[in-house]
Amino acid sequence: MLHKAYETIGNALKQQTGLPEAQLIDGGEHADLASTVAFSIAKEKRQAPVKIAQELAIELAKNPQLAGITVEAKGPYINFILGKEFVTEAVKAAVKPGYGALPRKATRVVLEHTSANPNGPLHVGHIRNSIIGDTLARAFRKAGYPLEVQYYVNDMGRQIAIVVWGFDNLDSTQQPGEKEDAHIARVYIAANREIENDPGITQQVNILMQLVENGDPATVKKFRREVSRCLDGFKVTMKNLNVAHDRFVWESDFIRNGYTERIINRIRKLPQAVDDETLALDLSEYGFENKYVIRRSDGTSVYAARDLAFHTWKAANFDRMIDVLGADHKLIGSQLQCTLRLLGEKAPEIVTFEFVSLPEGSMSTRAGKFVSADDLITEITKRALNEVTTRRPELDEETRLSIAKSVGLAAIRYDIVKVSPEKSTVFDWKEALDFERQSGPYIQYAHARACTLLEKAGTFTECYELETEQEIRLAKQIAKFPVIIDKVIAELRPHILATYARELADTFNTFYHFEPVLKSEGKVRDRRLTLVRAAQNTLKESLETLGIDAIRSM
Fold it and tell me: Which among 97, 106, 35, 130 has a CA at the least distance from the CA of 374?
């Protein structure tokens, strides 16, 4: 498979050049793999990269490790073209259940994502966090890592104190059929309006924050009750998005267990600590203009202190920590990493993403201006049902609705994850549901087409003797899947998998267009059906790693 080829070629290159890295990249149209090592060597030897590439290609072609692999120089690049033996092995692997899974690892990983404040429903901006995080989690598990996915529950911040004040002082009766998180949002919005009209309420909110930090039983119970209700609503939304967490970790636990107090005492001893009315860190020598506040003047800790405590706990229990954070948390995340390093602790890797919005505009829970994820799911399912009904009117209503739910989920998850995290994006209703374009439903449709071909074909004898250009091209695309999983993990960029799945669907559709399958005979029919089975299985594994249903009929 490509994984093995990467390793073999990489070892040969490192032996030949003495460099620590093989610098392998995708070969594009000219090759399966290519190396850019000639550029690195050219700087040292002060020779033209083209000349170095030619000399290396000649020597590498003599290497017995690379038997069956064509090595040639193409300008400054060294190209590697894999032979038929490689293609055969790739297809044999791809027809097996669980294709793409990598060997088990010992590294324990903790991945935190979503962690939205429990003061209202998850909206479209939140779910980019959820979908990026969940896709990474699926990729880590596919790559063989023992993983725990966590949601860090902010159950004692100012927003929650405002919610509690609202339940204590306003008409907070739950309306018939009102979802728990929507109920919380309604009270939170009303409470903020009251605070705008009467700033004196802020002092009452501050008292609630002091009481909860000091462990006042009645106040702790109120905070826990309203936060739990909001989380119940979140869990329904995330289930509908095919997102799951292994553990909900409560922020207040790090007050109760003493972790926060211990971290504050350690911070006090740092040379960067500024301990006057407040406790803060002066991190200007590390490029941060604003002080990193740890404790307020009234003695209560801020979110940053509890977050530091949380991360020291994670560091003690896991080998690798990953946080998925929105761009508005970029500064906070960088300060967190810097402080942990000053304390001699492991710092998390942070995946920062820009925001997703709807054409309708930006969102704010506080102002009551947002499109909830629930509303998005309802609307996209409705539009998907219309599309499915137009295409498959002969199906009964229950079947059409089932397909529509899967198609709607694919539309949302794929449209959000296909864009690299550092780029902002607008969710396009029409494009996301386009069966003919580069969308989640488009990939599902390619998978369903492969399933239909296999069902119509009936029994056949597996054959791996591929011949034509389109057959070999599809087999080589299939072979990339395990390497793509590895790359997603190494770079923490799930859009790489989304791009791969779309390209695989493209390649399969091109193969289907040019190469007759069911009308072929003998060995030709067998080998093409074997290739269809490998493509179907790889599409299935790709879709499921993206958190999308690999439905068999559309």
Answer: 130
